[in-house]
Structures are given as structure tokens and as C-alpha cells.
Amino acid sequence: MTATTTQDTSGGVPAREISISEFGAQKAQTILANSGKENAGVRVFIKSGGCSGYQYGMAIDDRELEGDLIVVDRGVKLLVDRMSLPLLRGSEVDFVENMMGGGFTVNNPNATSACGCGSSFRTDGSQSPDGEGSGGCSSH
């Protein structure tokens, strides 16, 4: 298995491929502790679709796959597959709460436009993959 692992041991905030906010880490640690999966982490990935072309996905995962980037930030293991990494590089996973509830979100510096619901995005010059993404936010 060839995976790249990065761990924050300096106590500082080094430049990293992907990170998680303090509040996001608190929420993720609670969810991971209740998942029943040993050594689980948060898998962050990109799939085609959504109203802006790409859509974020997240899952609790206890598998480390070949080619995964594995980052441990604020005590949370983040896993990103090699196909998603270029679109997620420099992103921060966060947890937001509002009147409609709460959920995880991705603050992505690579996104040049995003859907109003915040779960899909497009990068500079990219077309919607496979002709998808022409619908509204409710099409996810």
C-alpha cells in the first residue's frame, strides 16, 4: 500500500494539502468515536454532478486505500483519494450550524463558482463532467 501520511506535531499551522477547522474537528471526533469503526477517519472526495459540476462527498472510513493522502489534523484523520486531491488541495473541512441544522462543508480555494447550497462547485475553465450539472441545487 502506498499512501502519503502527514501529521501536525509542531503545534503550529503548517501549509497542508487539506485541513479541518477546530469546530469541524470537535464534531468529527464525536462522530468517529460513535462510529464503532476502529482507527476510522473522514474520507473527503469529489464526484461529478451537482449544479456547479462537481460535488463534495464525505464518509467515515476505516480503510486506507492505495494512493490515498492521509493527513492527521487536530486529532482527526482525513483521507483523500488521488483523483480528488487536485481539486481539494488547500481546502479546509468545517462544520457549520444554522437555522436549518448543521453539517460539514468544504472551504475550497480552488472553487471559482459554487452552488447556493454549498455542496457543489466548479473550477476555472472546467465544464460540467459528462454533461452533468445543469440543474439546480435540488438535483443532487
TrEMBL record:
TM helices/strands, residue ranges: none
Region (Disordered): 120-140
Polar residues composition bias: residue spans: 120-129
InterPro entries membership: ATAP, ATAP_core_dom, FeS_cluster_insertion_CS, HesB-like_dom_sf
PROSITE patterns xrefs: HESB
Coiled coil regions in record: none
Record-annotated Core domain positions: 25-118
Full protein name: Iron-sulfur cluster insertion protein ErpA
Taxonomic source organism: Deinococcus caeni
Source species taxonomy: Bacteria, Thermotogati, Deinococcota, Deinococci, Deinococcales
